[in-house]
Write a structure and sequence with these properties.
Blueprint lengths: L4 E2 L16 E8 L2 H12 L3 E5 L9 E3 L6 E3 L2 E8 L9 H14 L5 E7 L2 E10 L5 E2 L8 E10 H15 L4 E3 L1 E2 L1 H6 L1 E10 H11 L4 E8 L4 E8 L12
Parallel strand pairs: 1-12, 3-8, 3-14, 11-15
Antiparallel strand pairs: 2-6, 4-5, 7-8, 8-9, 10-13, 14-15
């Protein structure tokens, strides 16, 4: 049986550095710090920064949760700082995210990631994860799975259902649903076709057609040994204009 949780997230609007302040600083301390920083950037700017994981299997990258006997990714404290340009001008989103990954890797937080995307839609994608022997390896990625869809109009909900079915037919690890803005996905339709293209690209096209700002998070649960795909509807008004792309 497949379960899906519908949610409408009401996100607080944080302060954004003004031109007189020294720059952008975000501090987090949790088991998925890179995702947490992406969340904060999406709250502050009118951009989408998706996030996906590989398998958390290395003893170096796992720990017991505080309150429950389950394994979770190892917590890491990260403070990301991006200085204000000396000339006071705008900066490219890709440059900010590239610097984010540089600082994340320098902090020796779990996993190594790479950046793809442009024009307001960016993806944080696993590049290397440690294996059971704590050696760095290129991970198998769920969203690299090729998807085939007849080009026609469907609800977003039905389109995503078909993608999940194909992922689970082709992938060694199962993917289930996390949280989704169900009303939005049932009430809106998209026209999507796919002839053997990566699932990530199909999701990107869906996000571009949805009339609200939506991002995704693909999380690996080391306790259930499966992935969970969530979509987040960002209901907060951006507190700053988008930097140049």
């Amino acid at each position: 049986m497949r379960f899906r949780w519908a949610c409408l997230l009401l996100l607080a609007i944080p302060a954004i550095p003004s031109a007189a302040e020294p720059g952008l600083t975000i501090s987090v301390n949790n088991s998925r710090p890179l995702a947490a920083i992406a969340d904060e950037l999406e709250r502050r700017y009118p951009i989408v920064v998706t996030y996906e994981e590989g398998e958390w299997v290395s003893p170096d990258d796992l720990e017991l949760a505080d309150r429950f006997p389950i394994m979770i990714p190892r917590k890491a404290a990260i403070t990301f700082h991006y200085p204000r340009p000396a000339d006071g001008g705008t900066v490219a989103v890709a440059d900010v995210l590239t610097e984010l990954l540089f600082q994340y890797h320098a902090a020796e937080a779990p996993g190594r990631f790479r950046l793809e995307g442009s024009n307001g839609l960016y993806h944080l994608i696993p590049a290397q994860f440690k294996d059971y022997k704590c050696d760095w390896q290129a991970p198998w990625l769920v969203l690299d799975t090729k998807v085939y869809l007849e080009e026609k109009e469907r609800t977003v909900n039905d389109t995503l259902d078909e993608i999940i079915i194909q992922l689970n037919e082709s992938s060694p690890l199962k993917t289930g649903w996390g949280f989704v803005p169900l009303n939005l996905f049932v009430q809106n339709r998209v026209r999507i076709g796919a002839d053997g293209i990566p699932a990530r690209e199909v999701l990107r096209r869906i996000v571009q057609q949805v009339p609200r700002r939506v991002t995704w998070r693909l999380m690996y649960d080391p306790t259930t040994v499966r992935y969970y795909l969530s979509f987040v509807l960002n209901t907060s008004a951006p507190t700053h204009d988008e930097p140049s792309n």
